[in-house]
Automatic annotation (TrEMBL):
NCBIfam families assigned to the protein according to its UniProt record, in alphabetical order: modC_ABC
Source organism phylogeny: Bacteria, Pseudomonadati, Myxococcota, Myxococcia, Myxococcales
Alphabetized UniProt keyword annotations: ATP-binding, Cell inner membrane, Cell membrane, Membrane, Molybdenum, Nucleotide-binding, Translocase, Transport
Species assigned in the record: Myxococcus llanfairpwllgwyngyllgogerychwyrndrobwllllantysiliogogogochensis
Protein's name according to its UniProt entry: Molybdenum ABC transporter ATP-binding protein
Stretches assigned to the Mop domain: 290-356
Keyword set includes Membrane: yes
Pfam families linked: ABC_tran, TOBE
GO molecular function, one term: molybdate ion transmembrane transporter activity
Domain ABC transporter: 1-229
Length: 356
């Protein structure tokens, strides 16, 4: 699903000017509040009059103002879930989802209901659903339209952290099982890292960086989102194992497994995601022994940057996964934390919180 965006749209304080080409399987769109993220999604959805330029999604030309092409929103096959996605209050959850399928394929309804685990909610009306449940229904309604691309505008922003954590695992399923390409607006670097293959960083309507998520979501992204990247989390996704000696482990990659709080109710092989707050990780220069933390992971520092207020963030590569660790600038100096240095991270089992 290639994405070609070359568009200009005058906004109140500046013009949105985006010129990028992306593979488009899963793209995180990041930027401060007011940087133009919603406007960009609306251009793709065909909801912003006045946008000039070209929008080509998977080879289909949605907009080509020079050639007089401006496809109608309903013909674009964009599954748009706006920030304040409204459900029809007089329809049940199921009827809301089926409403989406009017323009799509009916078989998509069952798929979306199963994927988002809406079975128990189908007969409920929106007024009786929690924020996270409403978001799942809105997402299912968008999926039921059989979209070529999902446009998700920070679907979790309005929710508190606990609710928020309930929706991310579903987005991972949408990506991995439904395999619908998505453009996803978020403020959370941790979320973007686990969800997106590519990232697009906007600043005052301009593209500050675009490309592979591993490159874009580093230092400059944190600098740009500084005030919003507090409480940064590492999000790890993998398969659960139950070793014979007892306990529960999350196998993230060949070289990385993590002890997580024991969850005997989850069968081995279950896919799961866990969040580990960047400030809950201890960084040590030497090998650690005799510590109570059950996870001691060896890795290499790949970047250190100031995070304001005497704080710093070190990025550490462990078996191909990137971890962010918060520490003070004083610790960075005293310990000599710098790119290329081998370190060990200690992560308490209890610091690994399962999402959902
Ligand atoms: N219809 C419009 N016409 C003119 N300017 C607009 C319009 N809608 C939004 N703007 C302005 O354009 C800028 C970008 O807004 P937009 O909603 O796209 O940002 P955003 O990055 O999605 O913000 P947030 O993270 O707060 O949702 C803001 O300065 C906003 O005031």
């Amino acid at each position: 699903m290639s994405l070609e965006l070359s568009v200009r749209l005058p906004l109140a304080r500046f013009a949105l000017e985006v010129d990028v080409r992306l593979e488009g399987a899963s793209v995180a769109v990041l930027g401060r509040s007011g940087s133009g993220k919603t406007s960009l999604l609306e251009i793709l959805a065909g909801l912003r009059r006045g946008a000039r330029g070209r929008v080509v999604v998977g080879g289909r030309v949605l907009l080509d103002s020079a050639a007089g092409v401006d496809m109608a929103p309903e013909a674009r096959r964009m599954g748009y879930v706006p920030q304040d996605a409204l459900l029809f209050p007089h329809l049940t959850a199921e009827q809301n989802v089926r409403y989406g399928a009017r323009a799509g394929r009916p078989s998509r309804v069952e798929e979306a209901v199963a994927l988002l685990e809406l079975g128990p909610l189908l007969h409920r009306y929106p007024a009786t659903l929690s924020g996270g449940e409403k978001q799942r229904v809105a997402l299912a309604r968008a999926l039921a339209t059989d979209p070529a691309l999902l446009l998700l505008d920070e679907p979790l922003a309005a929710l508190d952290v606990t609710l928020k954590e309930r929706v991310l695992p579903y987005l991972l399923r949408v990506r991995d099982e439904a395999r619908v390409p998505m453009l996803y607006v978020t403020h959370q670097l941790g979320e973007a890292r686990v969800l997106a293959k590519e990232a697009l960083l906007l600043e005052d309507g301009r593209v500050r960086a675009a490309g592979p998520a591993s490159e874009v979501l580093g230092a400059s992204a944190r600098g740009l989102l500084a005030s919003e990247s507090e409480g940064e989390e590492n999000i790890l996704e993998g398969m659960l194992e139950r070793p014979s000696e007892g306990g529960t482990r999350l196998r993230v990659t060949e070289g990385l497994s993590l002890w997580v709080p024991d969850a005997p109710e989850l069968p081995p092989g279950t896919r799961a995601a866990y969040a580990v707050p960047a400030e809950d990780i201890l960084l040590s220069m030497g090998p650690l022994s005799g510590v109570s933390a059950r996870n001691v992971l060896a890795g290499t520092v790949v970047g250190v940057e100031g995070a304001g207020a005497g704080e710093a963030a070190a990025t550490v590569d462990i078996a191909g996964t990137r971890w962010v660790v918060r520490l003070t600038e004083a610790s960075v100096r005293e310990l000599g934390v710098a790119s290329g240095v081998r370190v060990h991270l200690a992560v308490k089992t209890a610091a690994c919180r399962r999402l959902r």
